[in-house]
Specification:
It is built from two helices and two strands. The protein is an alpha+beta fold and about 70 residues long. It has one domain. It has a two-stranded antiparallel ribbon with strand order 1-2. The radius of gyration is 16 Å and the shape is elongated.
Amino acid sequence: MEKYEVNAIVDQYHSGLEHTFLWVVESSAPHKLEEFCIELGVARWNDLKFVPERTFADVITDIRAIHGLED
């Protein structure tokens, strides 16, 4: 994990019916997640999709800053 700057695997979910894994990962270098998955071996038989996420609170803070809105 350190090699690819993965700070934490926050949670892991699995749907047996859809053969789908969802991992919530905290990373300071998200572009390295693909290499991390390749080294783990999960990329060998699985499709990978990386979706950057932000908290709703962070979105609101950014919108307020962009539009000059007060708290």
